[in-house]
Amino acid sequence: MASFEVDDEAEYISGTDIKNWVYCPLIVYYRKVMVLDLKLGSQQEEGKRKHEDLQRKIMRRVGIALRKRLPEVKEKVMNQEIILQKERLRGLIDIVLITNNGEIIPVEIKMMRSNRGKPWPDHIYQLAYYAILLERKTGKLVKRGYIYYAEEEELIEIIITNHEKTRVKRIIRDIRRMLKDERPPKIRINPRKCTGGCGYKWVCDKLGHNIA
Ligand code: SF4
Question: Which residues make Cβ contacts (< 8 Å) with residue 69, sequence separation at least 6?
């Protein structure tokens, strides 16, 4: 849910870039190489406005859900920004929990529904990316995180293993390569994803990438 504005955004990789790459790498190319504007449909714009209005209410609900599920939490940090200058990585984590025994747990809030009770893959890897940032920052192993799907008030635990972290590291390398070459990533487009929610359907339509 959290977002940030930076001057040198193109140089830095963010959690949103990781999420977008897993959803469709062309989004990251349009955003960071072509620097094109997002164009959301009227439905998505309306949804965005509604979500902004609901934000405070949702934060209260997340707090209740987290207290129920994780009574061992002693500290909760909202909108935790992490910047790793050397690696040019950054992230704005909705909530970071610290438990009584020092475990660190990232929480990501999504203003949408889950995939029928399961997390969406792009959200899992965004969370794994935050786990990596937190590990670099604190030197502690991050083994799990949570995604809160606000539309259905569903809090889902995600076990973050080396498998997810390795894939995130590969994605970071692939994004860096794309930024250097300034060439669109070679992908097989999944037309089911091309409904316009990505904000770049207008470009794909123009360039003939979109087959939906
Ligand atoms: S319209 Fe489809 S192919 Fe084009 S950027 Fe969006 S999700 Fe990717």
Answer: 146, 155, 157
Model-wide pTM > 0.70: yes
Dist. CA 132 → ligand 1 center (Å):
27
Is 170 part of any domain?
yes
**Mutational test site, ligand 1, from 23, 24, 122, max ligand atoms within 8 Å of CB:** 24
Q: What is the mean pLDDT of each run of 10 residues along the chain (212 residues)?
A: 58 96 96 88 62 78 95 96 96 97 97 96 98 98 97 96 98 97 90 90 84 48
For residue 101, the model assigns a pLDDT of 96
Strand stretches in 85-192, DSSP E: 89-99, 104-110, 144-149, 154-159
**Pocket lining: 198 vs ligand 1, CB cutoff 6 Å:** yes
Q: Judge contact between 65 and 73, C-beta under 8 A.
A: no
Q: Is 20 close to ligand 1, i.e. is its CB under 6 Å away?
A: no
* Domain harbouring 172, CATH code: 3.90.320.10
Q: Is residue 212 part of a domain?
A: no
